[in-house]
Amino acid sequence: MLSHKIVIVGAGCFGVSTAYHLLKRGFTGVTILDRSSTIPALDAASNDINRIVRSSYSDPFYAKLAREAIAMWKDKEEWGNTYQESGVVVLGSSEKGISYVTESHRNDAGLGASLQWFPNSSSIQAIFPPEARTASFDQQKGYINYDGGWANASQGLSMMISKVTALNGKILPSKCVTTLLRQNGKTIGVECTDGSIYTASLIVLAIGSWTPSSFPILDLGLRCLATGQCIATLQLTDDEMRRYRKCPVVLDFSTGFYIFPPNEQGIVKMATHVPGYTHTIDNISTPRTVTTDPHQGLSIPKSDIQSMRRYLKGVYPDLAGKPFSGTRLCWYNDSIDGDWVIDRYKTDPGLMLATAGSGHAFKFLPVIGRLVADIIQGASDPSVVSKFALERNMSRLDSSRCGTPTELNLGDLCTPEDLTGDV
Prior knowledge:
Blueprint: E1 5-9, H1 13-24, E2 29-33, E3 51-53, H2 60-73, H3 76-79, E4 83-84, E5 88-92, H4 95-110, E6 115-118, H5 121-125, E7 141-145, E8 149-151, H6 153-166, E9 170-172, E10 177-183, E11 186-192, E12 197-199, E13 202-205, H7 211-214, E14 225-235, H8 238-244, E15 249-252, E16 257-259, E17 267-272, E18 277-278, E19 280-281, E20 284-285, H9 302-313, E21 326-334, E22 341-344, E23 351-355, H10 365-376, H11 382-387, E24 406-407
Parallel strand pairs: 1-2, 1-13, 2-9, 5-15, 13-23, 18-24
Antiparallel strand pairs: 3-8, 4-8, 5-7, 6-7, 10-11, 11-12, 14-17, 14-21, 15-16, 16-17, 19-20, 22-23
Family: Belongs to the MSOX/MTOX family.
Cofactor: FAD
Organism: Collybia nuda
C-alpha cells in the first residue's frame, strides 16, 4: 500500500497535513495539486496572519486533540516562532454562551490545562496589562486558559509545505482540477483545466470551501456548505502596540466575536465565529474572494462593520474609534454539526473527502493529517470513523455557533469610507 499513488487536491491545512503524515509513514507517491499559481493560495482560508490555538472545546474529542496539537506547536525546532502562547480568554453572557464556556472549562480542567476561572468582571479586567484599558465585561462569565494563544497561519502553512517537499512529496501549482475520472464506479484520477491527467489509487479532495461548487456532481447538499466569515483589522501605532502586545486572545461564545493581540507589524485582527454568508451561484454557495473579484473580493457587509466596531468597544474601548485598516470575507467549508468530513465518498473507494473544517481546523495543522492517514489505512477507531463520516446523522447543530447563514447582498458591501472610525 505504501507504494500506491495518492493525489491530494488542495494545498491548504487538510491537504498538506495529510501529505506530511502519509510521507512520514513511508508512502512514496504523494502528489498535491493546487489551483493557485502561488502556494499557499492568496485566498486560501489558512493563508492568514493568525488563527486561534485553543483547547477550550465543549466536545472532549477536540479538546484532547487540541492539547496534542499545542504540544507540537511548542516545538520551536519544528515551528520556530509560529505559535505565540498569549493565553485565551473564553467568555459567555447568554445561556448558550455560558453553557459552552462551562463545558469547555470542564474539559480543559480534566485534561490538566492551566486555567483561572473569573469570579467577577473585575477579575477579567485584571488579566489584561494595566496599560491596555478594557471594557467592564459586565454580565460576562468565563476563564482564561494559559495553555493557548495564536499561530501565524501563513507561516505555519508554509512551513508544513516545506516539510512535505523535504520528504520528497510533490506539490504542483496552477493545477485546477475540473474532472474526476472514473472507471467501473471508482475514481481513478483527475483532469485539470490545462488538459493534464493524474491517475492514482486514491484521490483526496481537500479544497475546503471550493468543494461543493467545484464538484457539483458529488451532490453534497448542506453536508458541505461554503460560508463567508467577516474579518477586520486595525493598524496600531507604536505606542498602542506597546500597550496591547501582551494581551490574550479574547473569544466570546455568546456573540462569536474574537480578537487577537497585535502581531509584529502592529496589526490587530478581529472576526466573528457565526453562521456567516452564502453566495449562491447555480444553487450552490460559491466562494467570492480577491481572486474572483479583485475589486471588492475582500469587502464585508456594512452591517458587519458596525457590529464589529460595537463588539470591539466591548473589549478595548480606546481602539473602537480607530479606522479599520482592512477587511476580508474568509471562506470556510461548514458542516451542519461542526464536525469535519474525513471519509471515502459513498461507495467509491478511489475518492476521499478531507474537508469541512467549519472554522476550527487550522489549530490542528500538526495533527489533523494523522486522522486522515489513519482512515486511509483503516487504522482509525470506529468512533472516529463515525464522527467524521460523510453520511452521518447531522441533525445536531454546531454548538459553538447557531443559526443559519445569510445570503450575501452584493449591494451592501463596505467601501473605504465605511472603514473610518465612528463609535
